[in-house]
Amino acid sequence: MKRGWPARFSSMFSRVVVVAMVMVMALVGWGSGSGGAEAKSTTEAGHGEQALQEAYAALSAGKRVETERSYRTPEKPTVYLTFDDGPSELTPKVLDVLKEHGVPATFFVVGAQVEARPEVLKRIVKEGHAVGNHSYNHSYKELYSSFEGYWSQLKRTEEVLLRTAGVRTSIARAPGGTFSNFDHYYFYYLQEAGYHVYDWSIDSGDSRRVGVPAAEIVANVQKGPFRHEVNVLMHDGAGHGETLKALPDIIRTFRDQGYTFAAMDEQVKPDRFSVVKSSRWPRHTTLETFKTTTEDMREHLAARLKEAAPLDKGRAAEGLAGRLKSADGDVLEGGARATAGSAGAVQSGGPVDSAGLAGLAVSAGFTGSGGAAEEAAGAVTEDSAFSTVTAMDTIRLQQVMLRIGNRLTELEASELLLREHRLIVPLRALAEALGAKVEWSESSRTAAIEYGTHRAEYDLSRLQLRSYEQVRIGMTDIYRSMQVTSLPELELRDGSLYVPMRAALQQLGVKVLAYEAASERAAVVQAGRPQRMGMLVPSVPMILAGYLPVPEV
Fold it and tell me: 484 vs 137, which has greater pLDDT?
């Protein structure tokens, strides 16, 4: 039956009123945020309690509980040479061999040994090798009778590394390996604390008995297996002189098979042994102990993340070699150039310092979207958008004017590099254009630039770009890891770090908007944050379904 216009108008008016009321309620909630935050907090707390109980049940049943995460897969076959139990009087000689062959490595160090030879750890860090935590005193009984014993040693060595060389590392190796020593709880706790545990894929056999001859050590390594990524276990502790003798032949073995050498970091997929219950270490974990320990691990991770971002300004100000120019253009003292040996021989590695520690957020489940990560990777590997500029006679290109908002930064010919149709410019020039800040960590040879909620770290030792985005976890702002990308274009010249311009801008959330040829010798690049859409009037279904974000004013 058809209704007259008054009835239709009344019905339509009622619906409009309902929509308006819902919108007002939603906007009030958006404006205050307090009620929504409390509800979310309660929901998250309940979910966290349930998740803990489920995790405890799975671990008690002998199942592994771990956060899904992605790892970097190198293009070429890659070998990670690792040395345990040092530093000892043998370690400097191992470093000499590595330096002679231009090979980075990873040293899983013992805290007590570091205290005995602090200068050796400093050399390990200075020469671009990675550092891992291998406990404080290597005592199996103390480490594996209970997780508390293992954890206390790990923390003690953390403090030793930080105090001695300013190193914070997120990689660890269990003395004797995890097989028959770790249970599923150990792996879970360390994951929650932000640690990545590495066993090995090839055992050199240099510690199977005293005095294993060099020829046997080489033969053990040559048995493989030779996978795309290989993790070789060796020792640089006292009494391993034969390992030193075998090292040149081991390096030659992998070079002959086309392997690239790299140091470990948290982006390398771990080799892990199976978990086997051992009668040697009878352990029992109650639900309450599990909850308390898990909370302690998460608090430890949060504290380390807070310390790691931003970089410690005191240590960033130390050292002279390789200093950057400040954001206001003043040249700091020093400014040593990166030699071909340091930039080429050290293909990957360097200390796992506070610059790299922000990536620990991934282990806690704070991962970026795949689309954003793919876009970031594409920005680094493809720079075709510069075709308009580079189509000019680039040999004669004398000036690039970078305009971001009201800021205009002029880059002269001496500041412009062209690498495979990419414009490479000083990072401090981009900081000037953005009004951003740049910090340099001498210990990790890493420059960090922050702009808004974005952070990008340029690791000269590893020739890597690490990008992060700021998120809030509880009451703490941290940077979540978004992408780690190889960046061979990194170059240090006259105290300034040079980076690909378009990629660097995109990593900070700045979009290149236009490229113009001002003359045959000059180009103008205009950039800025993407324009925001006008406020969208929400529909009732969108509000009720919870799909609508907080409106931006």
Answer: 137
Phi, then psi, of 29 in degrees rounded to 5:
-65, -40
pLDDT digits (tens, 9 = 90+) for 46-59: 337 888 999 999 99
Tokens for 73?
């897969």
Beta-bridge mates of residue 50: none
> What does the domain layout of the chain look like in residue ranges?
78-307, 309-528
Contacts of 352 by beta carbon, 8 Å cutoff, 6+ apart? 130, 131, 132, 167, 168, 169, 170, 171, 265, 266
3-state DSSP helix/strand/coil % of the chain, to nearest 5: 40, 20, 40
Rounded to an integer, what is the distance from CA 185 to the centroid of its chain? 25
Q: Indicate if 84 belongs to the active site.
A: yes
Question: b vs e for 346-372, b when ≥16 Cβ sit within 10 Å of the residue's Cβ?
Answer: bbbbbbbbbbbbbbbbbbbebbbeeee
The structure's pTM equals 0.54
The length of the chain is: 553
Answer yes or no: are the C-beta atoms of 532 and 511 closer than 8 Å.
no
Contacting residues for 550 by C-beta, under 8 A, at least 6 apart: 30
Per-residue pLDDT of 182-220, as tens digits, reads 999 999 999 999 999 999 999 999 999 999 999 999 999
Q: Does the domain made of 78-307 have the CATH classification 3.20.20.370?
A: yes
Which residue of the set 84, 203, 206, 459 is catalytic? 84
Contact 521/389 with Cβ under 8 angstroms? no
> Which of 134, 235, 240, 454 is labelled catalytic?
235
Q: What are phi and psi of 168, to 5 degrees?
A: -115, 125
Q: What is the pLDDT of residues 386-433, one digit of tens each?
A: 444 444 334 456 778 787 766 778 887 777 777 655 788 889 888 888
